[in-house]
Amino acid sequence: MLTCLRCKRSEEEVALLTLKYRGENLYICPQCLPVLIHKPEQLAQSLPGAEGFGPPAEHHH
Q1: What is the pLDDT of residues 12-58, one digit of tens each?
Q2: DSSP label of 60
Q3: Distances in Å between the alpha carbon of 54 and those of 17, 22, 38, 59?
Q4: Backbone dihedral region for residue 36 (phi beyond 0: left; psi -120 to 50: alpha; all else: beta)
């Protein structure tokens, strides 16, 4: 069963988005997506290398 890499909820519970990372398919739910974007270091245990993603991108309005 597919689960969110952060909260571990399944595709039966929430919609999941597919990520390709280092040749692997990973899944994240929309509620956890902001963590991937803004605080990827919090995903270091489930996404090896996330701590090295660097600072978040600047957003221009």
Answers
A1: 999 999 999 989 999 999 999 999 998 888 888 888 777 777 666 66
A2: -
A3: 22, 17, 10, 15
A4: alpha
Q: What angle do CA 49, 31, 35 make, to 5 degrees?
A: 30
Amino acid 24: pLDDT: 92
pTM of the model: 0.79
Q: Is 32 exposed, middle or buried (0-12, 13-18, 19+ CB in 10 A)?
A: buried
Instruction: For residue 31, give the nearest of 60, 61, 5, 59 by alpha carbon.
Output: 5
